[in-house]
Specification:
Blueprint lengths: L1 E6 L6 E6 L2 E7 L2 H6 L2 E6 L3 E5 L4 E4 L7 E5 L7 E3 L6 E5 L10 E7 L4 H4 L9
Parallel strand pairs: 3-10
Antiparallel strand pairs: 1-2, 2-5, 3-4, 4-9, 6-7, 7-8, 8-9
């Protein structure tokens, strides 16, 4: 495990996430992820640290209200959020990681359009 850094476009939101150098991410086809091109690197809460940007974050929720979509109110980028599938963790947008620490990235497809079929137990597991 290593510490990756990242954040939004304007760099007001900055975070650290502890994950392998070779990461596995998911590409979800739900309405919000597919429109945004979000690639999920999901980690337990204790492996995520928001370094800066609390003051510029805006939160969007809908449907069950479980997912907390945090956006930078300055540049509009969602670099991380609390996902419905892992409400006790964080999903970091792998596209928002700084260059230099990811050695390889494999992408798995996730069927978020049929959420209940994808997560029949009501949540996903941490890898």
């Amino acid at each position: 495990m290593i510490t990756h850094t990242g954040g939004c476009h304007c760099r007001r939101v900055r975070f650290e996430v502890v994950a392998p150098a070779r990461i596995e991410v998911t590409d979800c086809n739900c309405s919000i992820c597919s429109k945004a091109g979000y690639l999920h690197l999901i980690v337990p809460a204790e492996r995520f640290n928001l370094v800066s940007g609390t003051d510029v974050l805006t939160t969007y929720t809908w449907n069950t209200g479980t997912a907390k979509h945090h956006f930078c109110s300055v540049c509009g980028v969602k670099s991380f959020y609390v996902p419905r599938s892992h409400p006790d963790g964080f999903s970091v947008n792998a596209r928002c990681l700084d260059a230099g620490t990811v050695e390889a990235m494999s992408v798995l497809k996730t069927n978020g359009r049929e959420w209940e079929k994808q997560y029949p137990r009501g949540r996903g597991e941490f890898m």
